[in-house]
Amino acid sequence: MAKCLVQLTYLEIEKCKRMREIIAPENAEEMEDLISFPKLNILRISDLHNLGRFCSGNYSIEFTTLKKLDIENCPELTGFMVNTGTDVTGGLQPLFNEKVAFPSLEQLEISGLKKLRIIWHHQLPADSFCKLKNLSIFSCDKLLNIFPSYMLARLLTSVEELAVVSCGSLKEIFELGELNMEESHAVVNTMLRKLVLVTLPRLKHLWSKNPSGILTLRNLQTVEAFACCNLQNMFPASVALGLQQLEVLKIQGCTMMKEVVALEEGDEAVHRFVLSRLSTLKLRDLPRLKYFYPQKHVIESPMLKDFYLDLRNSFKETEGERLGKFPVQLPLFSIKKV
C-alpha cells in the first residue's frame, strides 16, 4: 500500500493511541523492496504513545523531497527504521540508520522521545541530512549528545539554527572523541547562526574536548543559554576568537559557570576578542562567574547597546586581582574597547 502513495505531499498522524508502526510488512516477497515518497514535503508524527518505529523489516525508505519532519511525544519510539539484523551504533539503537534517507530535509524537530539515546547511525546514506538547516530537540531525557564526531562535517556545514531544551542526560553538544586533534588539518567551518540551550542539567561543556582550532563558529550570531546549572564555560578561547559575527549573547541561571571564555592549556597570550557586531550582552544569575576570560585580554565591541550585568553574589574580588577598566569596577573584564 505504501508504494502506491507516490502523489502524497503531506502526512500527519496524531493521537492514534494503539498504533505501533506506520508501515508494516505485507508479505515475505516485499522484504527487500525500496519504498519511496517522491513528493512528500511535510511529515508530522505526534502523540503516538505506543509507536515503536516508523517501519520494520528489511525495507529501505527514501523521502526524496521531504523538507520538514516533526516527531513529537512518541515516548516508545526508539528508531525510525528497526531491523534486528541491522548494526547499531555502540550498542545503541539510533533514531535514523542507513535504511532511511532524507536528502532534502531542512527542518527537523524531535520532542518527547523518552527512550532516545542517539540520533544518528554512524553509516547513513551519503546525501542524507546534508541540507538540514534547523534542528530542534526538546524533552529527550536519555539523549547523550547532539553532534557525534562522525556527523560533525556533514551536519555543521549546513545546520544554521540549533535549539536543545530539557534533555536531562545530555553531557555535550559536540562530541569530538574520535577526532585526532594533532593530526587533523581539516577545519570544519560551521554554518551555525543561532544556538539556544535551555534546562540541560548535566551539560558541563559544549565540546567533549578542546576543538583546538579545527572547529569554528565564525557565522554564529545569537547564543542563549538558560538554566544549564552545570555549564562551566561557553567557549574555549580558540572558538571565541572567531566570533566576529556574534550579535547577541545571553547567559542566565548557569550557576556553575566560572568564565564565559575558557583558558586553554598552555595559552598565555593576551588575546584580542573582536566582537565587532555584538549589540546585546546579558549575564544574569551566575553566582560563580569571575571572569569573561581568566587571562589578560582585550574586548572590542563598538556596537554594544544593550548591556546587562546582574552582580548579586558574582565577581568576588580576591586579594591581588587587578580591577578592570570597566564602568563597574570588578575584575570581569581586563580591558574593554567600545
UniProtKB/TrEMBL annotation:
UniProt protein name: Disease resistance protein At4g27190-like leucine-rich repeats domain-containing protein
Keyword tags: Plant defense
A Pfam match: LRR_RPS2
Any coiled-coil regions, as ranges: none
Species of provenance: Rubroshorea leprosula
Record domain Disease resistance protein At4g27190-like leucine-rich repeats: where: 1-78, 105-254
Signal peptide: none
Domain of life: Eukaryota
